[in-house]
Amino acid sequence: MTTPMANQANSGSRQLSASFRDPSGFLFTRNGILYRQINRAYAEDYARLMDSGLYEKLVKANLLIPHVEVDQAPAEKEAAFKVVQPERAPFISYPYEWSFSQLKDAALATLSIHKRALKLGMSLKDASAYNIQFVRGKAMLIDTLSFEIYKEGEPWIAYKQFCQHFLAPLALMSYRDIRLNQLLRIYIDGVPLDLASALLPFRTKLNFGLLTHIHVHADSQKRYSNKVVEPRKGVMSQQAMIGLIESLEAAIRKLSWTPAGTEWGAYYEATNYSDAAFEHKKQLVREWTAEKKPNLVWDLGGNTGIFSREAASSGAFTVSFDIDPAAVEQNFQVVKKNKEQNLLPLVLDLTNPSPAIGWDLTERDSFGQRGPADMALALAVIHHLAISNNVPLSQLAQFFAARAKWLIIEFVPKSDSQVKRLLASRKDIFPSYTKDGFEEAFKRYFKILKVEAVRDSERHLYLMETLHNG
Amino acid sequence: MHFSPLPYLDPGSGSLLIQIAIAAILGIGVALRASWGSIKKLFGAKPKAEDDDTDGESS
Fold first, then answer.
1. ipTM
2. Which domain holds residue A161?
């Protein structure tokens, strides 16, 4: 399930490769519109989903992406049963880009969907974190073909997958280190349970949920590897299934994460800004986004999302990227608290952004492939890239030009206290890092539309438009 | 081991066996809760509202 990397199929439509494994159907785009072909093999399950009331119930609870059946020719005629048009997620994100609570919400949504399905005679056959996306601020299942008719007695076929995609990374983030969510970037089918078991501290064996679903589970996998085991049919009652799901739910709910040594609320208040400078910057971002009316804004280095919210106030769907999992966590808490629908906080290291991963590198798109956006914000970030990370200004200009049509960028001079701090511990090898040098480098890729000196500071804010983008 | 007609996802033998074992134990709890509920109902207690409509959110 997901977007751009596509294989050319017949009838002018492009089949999306992220859904190639599923015999039930696949996604394709035609004339820029996203469709899902449902195959005949899935007809019975689809009918049950729609007729049992499960679809309606899940859509109403914001747990499943809505779709409409459309009169479109299928992309692969032989297997086709129906074509539907799902609502499109405004931005596809991946679990290694989510904060702790985003992954936790996605896990709880998955279990909640499975539980509701069971009550209506269906089961969630796929518990992949990649099937969950954040739409209108909520973790939502985007794969309509993930349900199958439940046969009492059968175990949950997605149990292992759920533990690898959700429970193991959440436990590692909570008990060991928040950065271990990056293991999901290496292991596309979730963190192997033997690895999770080895990395988790001993005290997690005293936690019933983690003891059973990770440690004992991993041992059992090892014991029965390379053995074909045929359990008796009808061996797992529905009550046992509900017991299992509730146990997973309790284990997930118990996991928490708060950044160590910080005052939660005041985590990001410490800046070298005066209130006047801060307010002026907010006002300029608000005015410039209102003027250009972008649909999609990427705030690169968005911190806790203060300026992302100014951009989002123009109506633009705004993705607020930051390298700091604590800032992203706090940002997501605000999204939830205020029920914000057009803001998506994500963890991203701009100096090493998400690569394309998976089979033939086409299953999950890289950060760049998911663009370009209409507008990018780069506020208080250029000194980190140019000085801490040694990227020449010309390369920075090229990088930003590939990301969006418009750019709002802040130039932070060497005389600024934050830059002085960065240069304090190293040799200044950046003679061209000046306001003039910055403008000269960026003029090769951009037309500078506006420049404003940020009040009560030494910084400047620019609005630029890329030269090559029509 | 083929439970559904198209198990394109390999559940893994060890995962299946441990799942069945854990679920068997946990299922007893669910069954006890259900019968305790009906005993209470016999004595006029209102059944607890189903938690079904809470959505997938962490608090």
1. 0.81
2. 95-254
CB contact under 8 A, A22 and B8: yes
Assess if residue A222 is contained within a domain: yes
- Closest partner CB to B20 (pick from A116, A138, A236): A236
Please enumerate in sequence order all residues whose Cβ is within 8 A of that of A317, keeping only pairs 6 or more positions apart, or say none.
A90, A91, A295, A296, A297, A342, A343, A344
| Together in a domain, A202 and A232 | yes
Q: From the list B11, B28, B52, which residue is nearest A159 (CB)? A: B11
Model confidence band, residue A101 (pLDDT cutoffs 50, 70, 90): very high
**In this structure, are A283 and A344 located in the same domain?**
yes
Residues on chain B touching A227 (C-beta within 8 angstroms):
13
What average pLDDT does range A224-242 have in this prediction?
82
CA–CA separation, A418 vs A432, rounded Å? 18
Do residues A299 and A420 share a domain? Answer: yes
Average pLDDT over residues A178-207: 97
pLDDT (tens digit per residue) in A138-158: 999 999 999 999 999 999 999
Would you state the pLDDT for residue A5?
Answer: 40
Residue A9 forms part of a structural domain? no
Q: Is the pLDDT of residue A7 over 50?
A: no
Check whether residue A241 and residue A306 sit in a common domain.
Answer: no
What strands, in cross-sheet order, belong to the sheet with A80-86? A6-8, A14-16, A25-30, A33-39, A80-86, A67-69
Which tens digits make up the pLDDT trace of A44-54?
999 999 999 99
Examine the domain organization and report whether A243 and A285 are in the same domain: no
Decide: helix, strand or coil at residue A6.
strand
Are A237 and A281 members of one domain? no
Q: CA A378 to CA A363: how far, in whole Å?
A: 29
Residues shown for chain A: 470
Work out the percent of chain A whose per-residue pLDDT is above 70: 93
What is the CATH classification number for the domain harbouring A313?
3.40.50.150
Residues A225 and A284 in one domain: no
Which chain B residue's Cα is nearest to A221? Answer: B14
Query: How many folded domains does chain A comprise?
Result: 2
